[in-house]
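For reference, the entry.
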Amino acid sequence: MKYIIISISIAVSLVFFSQVSALDLGQGLVKDAGKAAGYDENTSDITLSENVGKVINIALSVVGVLFTILMVYAGYLWMTARGKDEQIEKAKTIIVASIIGLFITLGAYSISNFVVPRILDASTGAQEADG
């Protein structure tokens, strides 16, 4: 049962990590506003939404690396425990804490991935024009 849960959590994390750059924070809206204001639409300036997306991408990458490091460390502790119950419990605690942290991070990203586009649609009225 433990291996099924671990396999499912790894599969879910791979799906979420592959969609990190899929969140659109209104890039088209920024270009349209710049064009209406008289700015060159082919400029290479980076928008705020692109910067925020890059920061989120870097933060999720760091979380993934920390999760991997903690899992390897806990696995090493467990494998070198030689029957010491304290070390085995410490390894189990690290594994559980790192998985909980990963789920909290993925949950926060999933919520923001769900909420931010709807806020942009509501604030710009793009949904009303489509419907």
